[in-house]
Amino acid sequence: MTHATDTTATTDDPFLWLEDIYGDRQLEWVRAENALTEDALVTPDFEQRERSILEVLDSTDRIPMAGKHGDFYYNFWRDAEHRQGIWRRTTWDSYASEDPAWELLLDVDALSATEGTEWVWAGALFLRPAEGAPHERVLVALSPDGGDATRYREFDLGRLAFVDDGFDIPTAKSRISWAGPDALYVGTDFGPGSMTSSSYPRTVRILPRGGDLASAEQYFEVDQDHMMALVVHDPTPGFERDLAVDTIDFYTRRTYLRQDGGWRLIEVPEDASISLHRQWLIVRPRTDWTAAGSTYGAGSLLVIDLASFLGGDRSFVTVFAPDASTSLQSWSWTRNHLLLNLLHDVSSEIRIIDPARDWAADLLDACPPLHSVDAYAVDDEDDDAGDDYWLVATGFLTPSTLYRGTIGGDSTAVKSSPSYFAEDRFSVEQHFAVSSDGTRVPYFQIAPKDLQLDGGNPTLLSGYGGFEHSMTPAYSGVIGRGWLERTTEDGRHGVYVLANIRGGGEYGPRWHSAALHANRHRAYEDFAAIAGDLVQRGVTSPALLGCTGRSNGGLLVGNMLTTYPHLFGAISCGVPLLDMRRYTKLSAGFSWIAEYGDPDKPEEWEYVQTFSPYHLLRDDVAYPKTLIWTATSDDRVGPVQARKMAARMKDLGVQNVWFHEALEGGHAGASDNRQAARMHAMSFEFLWRALTGSL
After folding, report:
1. Looking at 667, 671, 680, 683, which residue is catalytic?
2. 586 lies in which domain range?
3. Helix, coil or strand: residue 406
4. Domain named Peptidase S9 prolyl oligopeptidase catalytic: which ranges (predicted)?
């Protein structure tokens, strides 16, 4: 079981006792608070809306996204009949048909019933077979409670069964990769000293088939105060190699190439991201980088022949350079081309880069305005389809469509999601608010076409603003049914707003770094500016404006609660960071120092405390109605910060505070569709009733 890592530090915190995650007294407190919240929110109307949301999540008409390995297309699927899910595969002809015939590989519900553990699917790692051979072995990752700690077990794709005496790595926050058909590179909890202060593996060992973890040979290690160690094997024929990554923190790392029995550092800036594809080295610097007399901008994408680079050459080709409106979000190699997924003012743009034409770039005409479209390779290892790509297109009012195309040819729609609400009643607009330092901050507004700009519309503002994560347009039947289609007594629909504040990645690394450490307040000023803009434009009023966020977004709305309470009528705060004095000592919090700062350094606590909601609470402030929700098994943020925040607010006499903790579900707050439907319904129900005066 995962517990808080430190409950003995000197502190005057009267709610430190709630940090014992699985203590009997603590869980008794949780159950009592859950009962109060459920008594207030769970009504027959609530249960009907919960069922409506569950219909979306369990819909058998949604797109079964698949990954190609060899001749098969693999998919993991949950629905009403498969609560914990099934892992399955099919052929291309079958997948492209209206009613694919799936071959069942693993029934997680049945496995859980047999083994007496409520397993939660966490993914699969395929072993690349010999050239021309079928895929035979895979490591299946399963979590016992929905948390980040997982067990890895070897699975035989021929027998459709776990391998007797095969690889079986016990449950931990592991990082595993295949070293070959008969060995693994294993980073896991080997005992004292083997995990970093961030609760991730510090060492990687070579585990041969039939070998013992405890006596496995150490292959790579990093410092205790670094974030994580990882070793991966690149099995590409003709380019086989081992890479080791020393992740120092969230944004800095050192990558090494195995050469001549040792590790050779790939000499790029520690804050740069790199990837290898056959002979090519790709580098994306996070800050401006000068090499061999040339300066490359933050957020650009550079390419060079790896052998030449290792020989001292630094004549990079710039395949992407950002501008004030355009940023690189991701890239993907097909067999012979490089796909770039960009954002231009938070709308998608895709470029195809051709190395054979001196890295010439062509636009892929597949991106309507105010939509999100992502392109990525189907299977660059496939001799016949190596230049095929998937294209996933979605918008706030456009159900997702999956296309398959070939570079230089056409693309064809393969699957489309159904409509879950009356999209034609609504419209999407993009607006820009002006933050306190003059920065223009974009946001999306999804509202009825006949929206009255008289300040009378219940409005939900959502955001994140951290870790260079971009908030992009996406269709959501859950938001459609849970918020947009709901109406007040006088027939007004809900308005949904998505913020693109600093701290995110919408405009690349500069947009992110603008809100790091001592500048964290800029993310909150941006969000507050959007709230003010919505009121100024007549969309809503403070009493009818709610906000919601999870994880780092929970910290965001926690700061709205404590610093901008006058702007909101209700706040839903999910799986949040809130106690920024002790966050580094709780669950995986130490790994986020690069984002927020180190509260154990007095000079950094000076600014960290200014955005620590737990410490900003006062007993003389009129706070908006608040729901704080979390999950017991969340081993990333952990539930204790949410518990302590709710307990302290109630102790201060703050009225209208509700707390709910799912007893399973991990950092997502839910480990199956039923739990997810309850979580969504509870947040929407609280916000709607709090804003419209029925709570």
Report:
1. 667
2. 16-55+482-489+525-692
3. strand
4. 493-692
Which two tokens mark 144?
């016992």
pLDDT tens, 29-88? Answer: 999 999 999 999 999 999 999 999 999 999 999 999 999 999 999 999 999 999 999 999
Alpha-carbon gap, residue 489 to 691, rounded angstroms:
13
Non-local (6+) Cβ contacts of 499 within 8 A are: 441, 443, 461, 462, 463, 465, 471, 526, 527, 530
Integer Cα distance of 673 and 78 in angstroms: 7
- Judge contact between 445 and 397, C-beta under 8 A: no
The tens digit of pLDDT for each residue in 258-279 reads 999 999 999 999 999 999 999 9
Residue with tokens 């039939």: 210
| Cα 39 to Cα 43, 440, 649, 659, distances in angstroms | 8, 43, 20, 12
Which among 396, 400, 402, 403 has a CA at the least distance from the CA of 418? 400
Average pLDDT over every residue of 538-544? 98
Q: What is the spatial distance between Cα 311 and Cα 170, in angstroms, rounded to a whole number?
A: 42
Does residue 612 carry a pLDDT above 80?
A: yes
Per-residue pLDDT reduced to its tens digit, 634-644 = 888 889 999 99
What gap in Å lies between CA 542 and CA 292, rounded to an integer? 55
667 annotated active-site: yes
pLDDT at residue 7 is higher than 50: no
What's at 643, amino acid-wise? R
CATH number at residue 684: 3.40.50.1820
Edge-first strand order for the sheet with 338-344 is: 326-333, 338-344, 347-354, 360-363
Q: What is the pLDDT of residue 12?
A: 85
Say whether pLDDT at 535 is over 80: yes
Q: Choose, from 411, 417, 476, 551, the residue flagged as catalytic.
A: 551
In single-letter form, the type of residue at position 652 comes to L
Residue 297 lies in a domain: no
Under DSSP, the state recorded for 418 is: P
**Is 304 within the bounds of a domain?**
no
Distance between CA atoms of residues 126 and 154, nearest Å: 10
Model confidence pLDDT, tens digit, residues 347-384: 999 999 999 999 999 999 999 999 999 999 999 999 99
Q: Residue 483: what are its φ and ψ, rounded to 5°?
A: -135, -55
With contact defined as beta carbons under 8 Å apart, do 95 and 66 qualify?
yes
* Count: domains in the chain: 1
* Active-site annotation holds for 551: yes
Q: 139, 142, 153: which is closest to 118 by C-alpha?
A: 142
Asked if residue 351 belongs to a domain, the reply is no
Q: Which helix (H) or strand (E) holds 246?
A: strand 241-249
- Evaluate whether 503 touches 538 at the Cβ level (below 8 Å): no
